[in-house]
Amino acid sequence: MSRIEQLIAELCPDGALFRTLAEVTGRGEQIRWAEVGDEGFQYIDLTSVDRVTRRIGETATITAGAAPSRARQIVRAGDVIFATTRPTPMRVAVIAQEYDGQIASTGYCILRPNQDEILTNFLAHVLGTERFRQYVEENQVY
After folding, report:
1. Which of 40, 88, 125, 139 could form a disulfide with 46 if both were Cys (CB 3.0 to 4.6 A apart)?
2. pLDDT 10s per residue in the chain (142 long)?
3. Domains along the chain?
């Protein structure tokens, strides 16, 4: 029996409530480049997230006129992102306050945790597990 199974048996004798990601998260929004003028944004591309630390490292400043075609997703503090394209799987990060309102690549899935349903860091933990990686590999469509 795993440690989590032991905790569920001890703390939830009637069982734990399991929910799908869709039930406990919302989706991000897309930027409308034509509406932002010359404003600059930090761009979180697929190499910006460190696989080990799960933190956002180097980003580039982009504007509407120089934005890569994949630079379309607005992120908010507390969002959890994970890379969905090869060869960058398992790049998972929680969006820090400093990146609130910035732009991420469409190579990321952005999940906005419903705070009444799931803790942000728990969601990030689950998305970073080997079990989740295997699930994604088994179910992804090429």
Report:
1. 88
2. 788 788 888 988 888 788 999 999 998 899 999 999 899 999 999 999 998 999 999 999 999 999 999 999 999 999 999 998 876 667 999 999 999 999 999 999 999 999 999 999 999 999 999 888 888 888 877 6
3. 19-139 (3.90.220.20)
